[in-house]
């Protein structure tokens, strides 16, 4: 990025030098008078007046090539690209070797105008000149890569049918940066009114978005701009960017606010080491809220704005880590969005080969834990304009973005489109639940933990909501998960979600009723596993067994009966023996891990205590289970 800025400065300064030189291609006195006036206008930053005087010089002498090249530079500086292309074209037609920099300038603005074949031709011409300055050559090669990529991309367009999401959200004002909760029930976005950015939200009912409302007076302000937000998958935490606030550490910082009932608590600055005296912005939080991706121009990057990440632990946010050279370039990488699969990252960049300006890219996390090389999302998702602010649904099949050139309701509007299959993330679903007291039916704030049973590691740890007892967590396909919900004074709840061959998008919606610790109350241990007709505990049972050990250690007066149960397939005596041995295996594991044998008994019941009729494979699977029951407290 620094090289590009230096190059741009060099280009414009070269125009001033041409105007100041004493030897010109014209001897027309009137033309020379106007070029000197234009030079003074440039020194005074009066660029429109400079253009008028150069036009007068060219009227006096149409072959005044120095004046024509300078006019092209001024048009280019003012982003009047069509006019600049016309003037540079006339310079080349008059004298192809007048100044080699013309080819680089022309190649650059032709990319801005989506004239990719012409850009390729002019950039290749420029790069054939000997003795080019390193920064100029590097920039020309970057532009040439853009031109070549764009030519190929336009020959192989990807599906792209954006749909405006409606007047309930979009207005004549600017709406942009949309993010949705995992269940797609709430959409939070930024709306700009009178140059003030605030957050708004829309709730979906019956498959339709409701009229957007002001998010919260606790977060939005009249004095500062709030923007570039990320919502946690359960909708309870909002990370956002705040600039020039009195509680900021730098020009722009990252803040967090927690949902409290129907409103939000006052946001707070997440502090160092994430926020610095520099510029930190555009947060994106992963599925469990413990890894934060963000944009910064802090030291140690690759140049310009880079994407970094920080992980939350008991000690706070970790020292940020740069995502590395497969994501970041010497130019600008921005607008990160980490999908709930935790291994697919979308972002915008003007450093990787693209259609010009900022394009949208995707990178996937490799098995080595490193991000793979960025992949352009393709044309016409990307264009010669700026693309950014992409976010996805949890299912990963649709994406949200904003645009001001698709004939919407006015300004920037929010759109939705179906993402091409090859750039979609891994399939995910979510589990959404309510936790209540089994007796009173009142909501409970309880610890919710989801465990990857293969690695025995927690992938989600949080508490159900204090007011509603609600929780929501995303689950990535291809794995087997155990869910445990616990609260002091209650039996814990166990559930299993097998997504190893998961193909549907249907989420898991559950109601959990926690029973108090009383004699006769039972818990089905849904994450205790045995091979068919065997009683050796499988490795995936470990997390559940450790949960049971924790429960017994916290409730030292409790005695339990461990029971094994089978379906009705096979001989009664064989089922009885199998269930007895399975219960014994759990008993032995607990004793082997410090639980006194006197607190435990075990028994096998075979098929004698079904919880559902043995009429289907699914029901027979439910009857094959391990339980424990409180026998003394």
UniProtKB/TrEMBL annotation:
Its main location: membrane. This is Outer membrane protein OmpA-like peptidoglycan-associated protein. It is found in: Cell outer membrane. Keywords: Cell outer membrane, Membrane, Signal, TPR repeat. GO terms for cellular component: cell outer membrane. It comes from the Bacteria. Residues 519-633 form the OmpA-like domain. CDD domains: OmpA_C-like. TPR repeats lie at residues 65-98. Residues 1-19 form the signal peptide. Transmembrane segments: none annotated.
């Amino acid at each position: 990025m620094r090289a590009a800025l230096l190059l741009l400065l060099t280009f414009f300064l070269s125009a001033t030098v041409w105007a100041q030189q004493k030897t010109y291609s014209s001897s027309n006195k009137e033309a020379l008078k106007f070029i000197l006036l234009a030079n003074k206008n440039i020194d005074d930053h009066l660029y429109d007046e400079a253009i008028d005087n150069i036009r007068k010089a060219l009227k006096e002498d149409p072959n005044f090539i120095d004046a024509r090249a300078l006019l092209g530079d001024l048009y280019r500086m003012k982003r009047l690209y069509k006019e600049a292309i016309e003037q540079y074209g006339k310079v080349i037609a008059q004298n192809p070797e007048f100044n080699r920099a013309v080819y680089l300038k022309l190649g650059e603005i032709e990319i801005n105008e989506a004239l990719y074949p012409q850009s390729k031709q002019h950039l290749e011409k420029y790069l054939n000149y000997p003795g080019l300055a390193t920064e100029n050559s590097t920039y020309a090669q970057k532009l040439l890569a853009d031109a070549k990529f764009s030519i190929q991309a336009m020959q192989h367009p990807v599906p792209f049918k954006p749909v405006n999401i409606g007047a309930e959200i979009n207005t004549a004002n600017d709406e942009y940066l949309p993010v949705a909760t995992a269940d797609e029930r709430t959409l939070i976005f930024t709306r700009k009114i009178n140059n003030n950015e605030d957050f708004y939200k829309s709730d979906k009912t019956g498959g339709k978005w409701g009229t957007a409302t002001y998010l919260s007076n606790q977060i939005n302000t009249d004095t500062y701009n709030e923007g570039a937000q990320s919502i946690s998958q359960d909708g309870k935490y909002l990370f956002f960017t705040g600039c020039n606030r009195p509680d900021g550490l730098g020009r722009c910082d990252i803040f967090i606010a927690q949902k409290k009932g129907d409103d939000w608590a006052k946001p707070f600055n997440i502090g160092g080491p994430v926020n610095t005296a520099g510029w930190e912005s555009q947060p994106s939080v992963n599925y469990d809220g413990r890894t934060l991706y963000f944009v910064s121009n802090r030291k140690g990057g690759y140049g310009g704005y880079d994407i970094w990440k920080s992980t939350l632990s008991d000690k706070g946010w970790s020292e940020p880590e740069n995502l590395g050279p497969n994501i970041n370039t010497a130019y600008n990488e921005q607008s990160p969005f980490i999908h709930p699969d935790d291994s697919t990252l979308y972002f915008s960049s003007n450093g990787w080969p693209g259609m010009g300006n900022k394009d949208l890219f995707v990178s996937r996390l490799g098995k080595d834990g490193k991000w793979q090389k960025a992949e352009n999302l393709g044309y016409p998702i990307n264009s010669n304009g700026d693309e950014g602010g992409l976010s996805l649904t949890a299912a990963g099949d649709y994406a949200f973005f904003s645009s001001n050139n698709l004939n919407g309701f006015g300004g920037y509007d929010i759109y939705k489109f179906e993402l091409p299959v090859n750039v979609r993330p891994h399939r995910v679903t979510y589990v959404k639940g309510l936790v209540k007291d089994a007796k009173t039916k009142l909501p409970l704030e309880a610890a919710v933990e989801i465990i990857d049973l293969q690695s025995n590691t927690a992938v989600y740890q949080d508490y159900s909501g204090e007011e509603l007892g609600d929780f929501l967590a995303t689950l990535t396909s291809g794995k087997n998960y155990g869910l445990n919900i616990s609260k002091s004074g209650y039996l814990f709840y166990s559930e299993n979600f097998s997504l190893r061959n998961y193909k549907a998008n249907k989420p898991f919606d559950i109601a959990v009723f926690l029973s108090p610790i009383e004699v006769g109350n039972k818990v089905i241990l849904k994450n205790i596993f045995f091979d068919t007709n065997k009683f050796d505990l499988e490795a995936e049972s470990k997390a559940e067994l450790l949960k049971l050990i924790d429960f017994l250690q916290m409730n030292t007066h409790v005695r339990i009966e461990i029971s094994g149960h089978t379906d009705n397939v096979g001989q009664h005596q064989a089922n009885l023996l199998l269930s007895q041995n399975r219960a014994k295996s759990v008993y032995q594991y607990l004793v082997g891990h410090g639980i006194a044998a006197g607190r435990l008994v075990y028994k096998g019941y075979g098929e004698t205590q079904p919880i559902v009729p043995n009429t289907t494979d699914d029901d027979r699977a439910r009857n094959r289970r391990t339980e424990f029951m409180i026998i003394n407290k």
